[in-house]
Design a protein that fits this description.
It is globular, with a radius of gyration of 22 Å. The strands form three sheets. It has a seven-stranded parallel sheet, with helices on both faces. A six-stranded parallel sheet has the order 12-11-10-13-14-15, sandwiched between helices. The chain has helices at 21-34, 48-54, 76-85, 99-110, 142-148, 156-174, 176-179, 188-196, 236-256, 289-294, 311-318, 347-359, 361-378, 381-405; strands at residues 5-10, 38-44, 63-67, 70-71, 95-96, 114-118, 131-138, 180-185, 203-205, 226-230, 261-265, 280-284, 298-301, 323-325, 342-343. It has two domains: 5-209 and 381-405, 3-Layer(aba) Sandwich (Rossmann fold); 226-378, Glycogen Phosphorylase B (Rossmann fold). With 406 residues, it is of the alpha/beta class. α1 (21-34) crosses α14, α5 runs antiparallel to α6 (156-174) and α9 (236-256) packs across α12 (347-359).
Length: 406
């Protein structure tokens, strides 16, 4: 029997040591698809060719081509109005593949049984409106991201512009069921949102996850206590979140734990973007993150904007690290305060939760042990893979049925 031919269009290079949540998801889904059939991967993103050269030895998902999107500006009032009101306007992100790259992709689609788009942005790099035999992995929803950024508006005109973007992206999202055979979301909350805005068609929930460690993690919290954060600063919600924590929460924590240190991991955290403080360490990218996190008393997830679900939460649970998060940071994980993490949204409550964890390490570790068990059941990529297969198999069934009717 011929193997299923899968074309995997990704916005991320499949490096062996991912640098962000999107890369972890791209790699996890790609590995699951490899168990289902023969996968060819095309990476579509700015800087993809340079990444290919830098990571040529980590081509785990059989990358056959990298495509550099070209700028495609919307000019004039008519162009801006069309972008705002027409959900099918081409290249709404202001960039897209050239004719040669597009022709290559469409030929590969014709030769494939299944097309899987990793990341919401990827299909918008091409002019097509309808994508047969396709799965779109809606890793996050732009309208939700734009809505979360409304409080950051600098005035009425800026607020109106942001509201236009919310409205425009919501209209595009409502048509996704008509354009793709099957949709996938990171959480049941995102699935419910798509239904609410009128999106039709099958939707599969494929949560974000993390690789299961080869053995049960061993914790070695340091003295003085360390509080840690993980996330690249290139993602605005990470930078905004850690700045809020450093300004509003950290001084309150230091009143009760004066010798505590804040450890920040992620690309950009070693630069001038890092919050200033002699007790704040910007470590940049860390190759052995597990050993670093093992020395922390807790991981904070002070995210207050964005969309989708946070891979860093699954990562913390995979390392049995106690977690204090905002409700936004724990979005999509169906967590309650005190279940397997502590939740707090105001600066006072967030700081108190951190102090409680530092002051009651045994109780905090018992909570993290519950999180470890939840992780093993729900958020390892081994546990998630059957959800990937189910979405792919439904797409194949529906594509076959539609083809037989033609």
């Amino acid at each position: 029997m011929r193997a299923i031919r899968i074309l995997y269009l990704s916005a991320y290079w499949p490096r062996s040591q991912p640098l962000c949540g999107g890369e972890w998801r791209a790699l996890g889904v790609g590995r699951a698809l490899q168990e289902l059939g023969s996968v060819q991967t095309i990476v579509v993103r700015s800087g993809a060719i340079e990444e290919a050269r830098a990571n040529k030895t980590t081509n785990e998902l059989n990358v056959i081509r990298c495509i550099e999107p070209q700028r495609r500006f919307r000019t004039g009032l008519r162009g801006k109005i069309r972008w705002a009101v027409d959900p099918r306007v081409p290249y709404p992100l202001g960039c897209g593949a050239d004719a040669d790259a597009s022709a290559f992709v469409f030929q590969k689609i014709n030769d494939s049984d299944l097309v899987w788009f990793c990341n919401f942005r990827t299909p918008y790099m091409f002019e097509n409106s309808i994508w047969p035999k396709s799965v779109l992995d809606v890793d996050d929803l732009p309208s939700c991201f734009e809505k979360s950024m409304l409080p950051a508006a600098t005035g009425f005109r800026d607020w109106v512009a942001r509201m236009v973007r919310v409205y425009s992206w919501r209209r595009r999202e409502s048509t996704l069921g008509e354009r793709f055979t099957v949709l996938a979301t990171c959480s049941e909350s995102d699935e419910a949102y798509l239904r609410k805005i009128g999106c039709t068609g099958p939707v599969h929930v494929i949560p974000n996850g993390f690789d299961q460690p080869t053995g049960e993690p061993v914790r070695r919290p340091a003295t003085p206590p360390r509080i840690g954060f993980v996330g690249p600063f290139s993602h605005p919600p990470n930078l905004e979140g850690i700045r809020w924590f450093a300004k509003e929460c950290w001084p309150l924590i230091k009143q009760r734990a004066p010798d505590a240190r804040l450890r920040i991991v992620g690309k950009g955290s070693e630069t001038e973007l890092k919050p200033i403080g002699s007790d704040i360490d910007g470590l940049g990218w860390v190759s052995d993150l597990a050993s670093e996190v093992a020395s922390w008393s807790l991981m904070v997830i002070p995210i207050r904007s964005g969309a989708g679900t946070r891979v860093k939460l699954a990562q913390a649970l995979s390392l049995k690290c106690p977690v204090v998060s905002t409700s936004y940071g724990a979005y999509g994980y169906d967590a309650t305060d005190g279940s397997y993490m502590l939740l707090a949204d105001s600066a006072d409550a967030f700081a108190k939760a951190c102090i409680d964890v530092v002051g009651s390490p045994n109780q905090a570790q018992a909570m993290a042990d519950k999180g470890w068990k939840e992780f093993l059941q729900k958020w390892t990529w081994n546990a998630i893979a059957p959800r990937v297969w189910a979405a792919a198999e439904e797409c194949l069934r529906r594509s076959k049925t539609l083809h037989s009717k033609v």
